[in-house]
């Protein structure tokens, strides 16, 4: 049995070593003519896309006469020896051998073919295949040496590091058919399309839709640990803000196409974490093979190939080149993924990492090229292709910088970053491959002047964002136009808001709604003044707003990311005929900072009246008396800190791009008796932390810890009414088997854990792994209680807890046991659906509760 090896790829950073052999004879005074020189010049290009291949290795075959191509793929190789063949190689390409004429000056252009063949584990040459083992495996011994030495081969090993970084992000519609390209709708848009070789990732026809370039100066200090990034250049296509949040797109792509650092244990791509082939645990999950020894390089290199033990896990396959100089550093790497990987919509992924030698003989990352092609159908049809190229230059080590360099935020942007002249960008695009798509800047500007494009964008905005733009005013959101519930019956609503076309300082929003069953009008009106001359929806927000709202809401249900009268939330289980009719007079001031710290000050008068089967009753003189309404005056301060937060700004709310960084929130509210009709004095404080924990191959956990306390004597509508869920959707932030208004507290603590295994177990089961399902589990616990002063069972003067239609109590205080529920779910059904079996562990004797339930959630994820 023998290993199927890649064809040899020879790669070196050594300079050419032309040697002129001079000969003289002591036996005769006659001079001997020097041999004729062989000089070979040319350009090395990619056979598929015709782009130059920089830093490819070129040598006379069988010698150490070697050179590398420059940034434009050009080379010159010379010798006085007699050689008739050159050899050209580069990571990810098949090695090429070409004949040359000895003793002549000639031009030889080389086209390298992509290494498209998947790495095969073994070729069976006998009846029995030996098992792959880590023990006594020289490839595993080598990777352990790489792991052992990886700390000293990283930036953080040096006391000081500085470098300049250029990055380009290109996103395109890809693999478009000629039929699609010639559709009537694109008659006026042919200038947008580009042709490329059909063998390249993305297919023949592509349509670039987004391009961004950034230049930054970076400083790192080891002790004390500090990092500073200053963006000196920022250039990107600009879409009309009423259609697309360009900066939000940039943040989204930045999260999907994060930096690829092979020395990190986990590499984040497409919101997933891939285990690096040189992570400490990599021998457990990868198989390694020594597939070449390259002695023509100084230092010598070992080509180390690797494949996943399970081809559906979130792992790479490919090869790396390890230096045999005692440092065991990675000099180059080529990463891709298996076609069977449990990764949605990804048709191809390819990452090339180039390293250059430091002054001390070690290596630093000098270039990364990451390409990912997406599509609904993995084998055919149109899709999307994103390519991010990062080039690092002017790399310097152990050059101390003054403390002033690190002052201020770790990431800052120069004042002229977005206004750099063309000459600045021309000097930064050192690689010719980076200059091929620059016409997109002009194309997108031209596109947005075409009326048919505006109409199409307007329609898509209505479909995805829910608003129809009419210039200075837009109507929406459309998903609230129609809804229903047991109290209001059929509810019709129409609203809208002004746009920046009316003013960049003043914004107005309004809606009107009517319930056909309760026959009551609801309405809302607000006016907002922007204090930073930016849209109030753009980050960082800084505005003051005044508003009045008369509307209904379910007690305790303050939905964060969706409208409460969203049509999809109309479908509920059990009894759901309790509502509050609310009047809100509110003034609030919001101030966000670039550091993602924000504070909000809110003053409001709140009047709430019971609706449906909900009643306010208290005992006075041993008589049950109805209470028409409660009125409170409140002053609140909300603090929030979300370091390194990224999000896409939608039309009505922000879509968070969840990452490993925590989010801290603190809310303080004071009730003021006697102020504008306020009836109660009280204070309430709530603290919360949200964080995602990545556990490498075991997936990730979303954890929320929250606690609150109410000080003062208040009726139950002013207590904490815990978030219940009576819909059939699985809600991460709610208790999915708790009923509305079931539990109230004046002090509580809770923990919510939702863990996704990303298919870690299903990937190991034959046949099942072909479905690419993913496992999920969750657990939620709520500790709380009521002091006697706030419990109507101990103080009859308080508003009594609500009862159901049978006269049974439906609202309770938590006892000595916490409320607990958990779930086991199967995700990635049809790539978008998660279904959970939820179990409620206690308080099962409360009326109208279920011990088990099935809940579903639509989740788009890679």
TrEMBL record:
<dbReference type="InterPro" id="IPR043741">
    <property type="entry name" value="DUF5686"/>
</dbReference>
<feature type="signal peptide">
    <location>
        <begin position="1"/>
        <end position="26"/>
    </location>
</feature>
<keyword id="KW-0732">Signal</keyword>
<dbReference type="Pfam" id="PF18939">
    <property type="entry name" value="DUF5686"/>
</dbReference>
<protein>
    <submittedName>
        <fullName>CarboxypepD_reg-like domain-containing protein</fullName>
    </submittedName>
</protein>
<dbReference type="Pfam" id="PF13715">
    <property type="entry name" value="CarbopepD_reg_2"/>
</dbReference>
<dbReference type="InterPro" id="IPR008969">
    <property type="entry name" value="CarboxyPept-like_regulatory"/>
</dbReference>
């Amino acid at each position: 049995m023998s290993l199927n090896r890649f064809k040899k790829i020879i790669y070196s950073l050594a300079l050419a070593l032309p040697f002129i052999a001079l000969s003289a004879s002591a036996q005769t005074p006659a001079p001997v003519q020097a041999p004729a020189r062989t000089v070979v010049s040319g350009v090395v290009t990619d056979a598929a896309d015709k782009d130059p291949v920089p830093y490819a290795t070129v040598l006379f075959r069988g010698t150490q006469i070697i050179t590398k191509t420059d940034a434009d793929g050009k080379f010159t190789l010379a010798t006085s020896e007699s050689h008739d063949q050159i050899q050209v190689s580069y990571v990810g390409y098949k090695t090429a051998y070409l004949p040359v004429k000895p003793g002549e000056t000639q031009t030889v252009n080389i086209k390298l073919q992509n290494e498209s063949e998947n790495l095969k584990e073994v070729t069976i040459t006998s009846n029995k295949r030996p098992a792959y083992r880590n023990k006594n495996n020289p490839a595993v011994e080598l990777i352990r040496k790489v792991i052992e030495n990886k700390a000293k081969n990283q930036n953080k090993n040096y006391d000081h590091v500085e470098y300049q970084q250029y990055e380009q992000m290109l996103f395109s519609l890809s693999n478009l058919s000629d039929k699609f390209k010639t559709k009537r709708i694109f008659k006026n848009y042919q200038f947008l399309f580009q042709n490329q070789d059909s063998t390249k990732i993305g297919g023949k026809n592509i349509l670039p839709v987004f391009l961004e370039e950034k230049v930054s100066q970076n400083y790192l200090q080891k002790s004390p640990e500090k990092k500073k990034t200053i963006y000196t250049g920022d250039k990107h296509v600009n879409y009309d803000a009423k259609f697309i949040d360009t900066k939000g797109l940039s943040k989204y792509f930045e999260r999907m196409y994060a930096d690829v650092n092979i020395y990190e244990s986990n590499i984040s791509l497409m919101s997933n974490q891939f285990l690096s082939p040189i992570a400490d645990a990599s021998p457990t999950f990868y198989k390694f093979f020594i597939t070449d020894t390259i002695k023509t390089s100084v230092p010598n290199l070992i080509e180390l190939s690797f494949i996943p033990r399970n081809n559906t896990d979130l792992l790479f396959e490919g090869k790396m080149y390890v230096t045999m100089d005692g440092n065991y550093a990675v000099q180059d790497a080529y990463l891709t993924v298996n076609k069977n990987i449990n990764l949605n919509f990804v048709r191809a992924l390819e990452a090339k990492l180039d390293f250059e030698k430091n002054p001390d003989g070690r290596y630093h990352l000098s270039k990364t090229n990451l390409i990912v092609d997406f599509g609904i159908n993995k084998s055919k049809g149109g899709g999307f292709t994103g390519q991010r190229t990062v080039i690092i230059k002017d790399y310097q080590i152990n050059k101390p910088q003054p403390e002033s360099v690190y002052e201020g935020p770790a990431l800052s942007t120069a004042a002229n970053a977005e206004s750099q002249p063309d000459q600045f960008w021309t000097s930064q695009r050192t690689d010719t491959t980076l200059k091929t798509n620059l016409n997109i800047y002009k194309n997108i500007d031209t596109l947005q002047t075409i009326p048919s494009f505006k109409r199409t964008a307007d329609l898509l905005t209505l479909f995805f964002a829910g608003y129809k733009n009419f210039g200075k005013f837009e109507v929406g959101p459309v998903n609230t136009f129609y809804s229903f519930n047991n109290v209001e019956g059929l509810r019709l609503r129409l609203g809208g808001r002004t746009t920046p076309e009316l003013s960049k300082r003043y914004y107005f929003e309004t809606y009107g709604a009517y319930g056909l069953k309760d026959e009551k009008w609801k309405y809302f009106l607000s006016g907002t003044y922007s204090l930073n001359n930016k849209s109030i929806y753009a980050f960082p927000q800084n505005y003051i707003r005044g508003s009045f709202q008369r509307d209904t809401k379910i007690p305790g249900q303050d939905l964060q990311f969706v409208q409460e009268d969203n049509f999809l939330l109309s479908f509920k289980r059990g009894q759901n005929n309790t509502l509050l009719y609310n009047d809100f007079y509110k003034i609030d001031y919001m101030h966000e900072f670039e550091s993602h710290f924000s504070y909000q000050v809110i003053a409001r008068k709140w009047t709430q009246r019971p609706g449906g089967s909900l009643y306010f009753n208290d005992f006075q003189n041993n008589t049950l008396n109805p209470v028409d309404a409660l009125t409170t005056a409140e002053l609140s301060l909300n603090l929030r800190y979300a370091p390194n937060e990224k999000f896409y700004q939608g039309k009505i709310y922000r879509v968070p791009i969840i990452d490993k960084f925590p989010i801290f929130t603190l809310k303080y509210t004071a009730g003021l008796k006697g102020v504008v009709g306020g009836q109660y004095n009280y204070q309430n404080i709530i603290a919360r932390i949200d964080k995602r924990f990545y556990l490498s191959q075991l997936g990730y956990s979303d954890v929320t810890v929250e606690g609150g306390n109410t000080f003062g004597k208040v009726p139950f509508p002013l207590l904490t009414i815990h978030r219940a869920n009576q819909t059939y959707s699985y809600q991460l932030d709610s208790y999915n088997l708790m009923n509305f208004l079931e539990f109230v507290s004046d002090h509580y603590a809770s923990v919510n854990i939702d863990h996704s295994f990303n298919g870690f177990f299903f990937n190991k089961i034959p046949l099942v792994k072909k479905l690419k399902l993913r496992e999920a589990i969750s657990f939620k616990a709520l500790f709380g209680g009521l002091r006697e002063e706030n419990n109507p069972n101990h103080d009859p003067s308080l508003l009594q807890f609500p009862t159901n239609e049978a006269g049974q109590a439906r609202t309770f205080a938590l006892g000595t046991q916490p409320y607990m529920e958990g779930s086991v779910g199967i995700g990635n059904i049809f790539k978008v659906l998660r279904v959970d079996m939820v179990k409620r562990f206690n308080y099962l004797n409360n009326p109208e509760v279920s011990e088990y339930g099935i809940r579903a959630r639509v989740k788009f994820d890679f």
